Amino acid sequence: MEKYLQHMRTKIAAEADQIVQAVSESQNKRYPFMRKLDDVLGRERERMVHMFADTLIMDESDRIETLKSWGEEAGTELSHFEMISLDMMLREMPKYRNTLGAVIKHEAIELGLDAREMYDVISVLDQSLNDAIYFFSVPFVQQEKDRLNLTQNLVSELSVPLVSINDQTAILPLVGAVDHDRAVILQERVLPNASELQLKNLIIDLSGLQTTDTFVAHQLFNLFDALSLLGIQPIVSGISPAIAQTLVQLGLTFGRIKSFATLKQALAYIEA
Questions:
Q1: What crossing angle do the helices spanning 16-30 and 93-111 adopt, rounded to 10°?
Q2: From 196's CA, which of 55, 125, 185, 237 has a CA 20 to 30 Å away?
Q3: Pick from 58, 82, 87: nearest CA to 70
Q4: Average pLDDT value for residue range 36-43
Q5: Residues 159 and 185 sit within 8 Å (Cβ to Cβ)
Q6: Phi, psi of 253 (to 5 degrees)
C-alpha cells in the first residue's frame, strides 16, 4: 500500500496547478468578488493540494500535526478578511474531494488496485480532508467569538450610559427592559463610574423604562442604597403614572429618595 500512496502523492503534486485552477474557477463563479483575492487564495489553494498529497504518506501523528499547523495559520490569516466567511471557504472542500478523488480513481485503475486497496487510499484522503476542515474552522470560530464579545461589551456600555451634566451631577437614562444581565451591569459599571467621576448627584431617569415589576424595583433600590453608601445622592426622574401605580400595587415607595415626574424637574431641583 505504501508504494501506491507514494505514487498517488506524486501524481497529485504534478497536477496541482490544474486542481487549483478548477477550485478557483468554481469558487469565482459562485462568489465573483473572490477574483480580487486570487493571489492570496491561489497560493493557499496550491499549498493545500501539496499538503493533501504529502499527508497520504505520513503516519497518523505527523499527518495530524501538519494539518493542525496549516489550519491554525491559514484559518487565522483568512478569518481576518471581512469579505470571506467560513461558509464560503468550506464550500471549497467538496471540490478538493472530487478533484483529488478523480486523480486517485484514475491512478488506481491504471495500477490495477482492487476495491479494498482503493478504499484504503480514499480513506486516507477523506480523513485528511475532514481534519483539515476542523483545524481550519477553529480560528474562524474564535474570531466570531471575539467579535461577539466585543459587540456585547459595547452593548453593555451603551446600556448603562452616564451622561455628565457638570462636575457633580450626571444622568443615567434607563431605556428598555431591565433583566438579570442588565441588573448585574448596573451594579458593575454604574457604581465604579459614578465613584470615579466623584459625583454628588446621580439622576436615574426612568422615562424610557419599558416595564416596572418587583424584580426591576428591587434592582433600582439596590442601586439607590449602593449609591448612598458611596456618598452619592440618587435622584429619580421620569416617574410616569404607570410606574407610580405599579409601585403602589407592589407596596413600594421611594421614601427618602427624591423623585420627580420629569427630568426637567429633577435638574431644576439640582440647580436650586
A1: 150
A2: 237
A3: 58
A4: 89
A5: yes
A6: -145, 150
Residue type, 203: I
The single-letter code of the amino acid at 166 is N
What DSSP assignment string belongs to 15-41?
A: THHHHHHHHHHHHHHH-GGGGGGHHHH
H or E segment to which residue 11 belongs: helix 2-14
Tell me the C-alpha distance between 33 and 24, whole Å: 12
Residue 109 scores a pLDDT above 80: yes
Strands (E), the chain: 163-164, 169-176, 201-209, 233-237, 258-259
Task: With beta carbons less than 8 A apart as the criterion, state whether 179 and 160 touch.
Answer: no
Beta bridge partners of 173: 205
- What does the block give as the cell for 49? 493540494
Q: What is the pLDDT of residues 53-90, one digit of tens each?
A: 999 999 999 999 999 999 999 999 888 887 888 888 88
The residue with greater pLDDT, 255 or 171, is 171
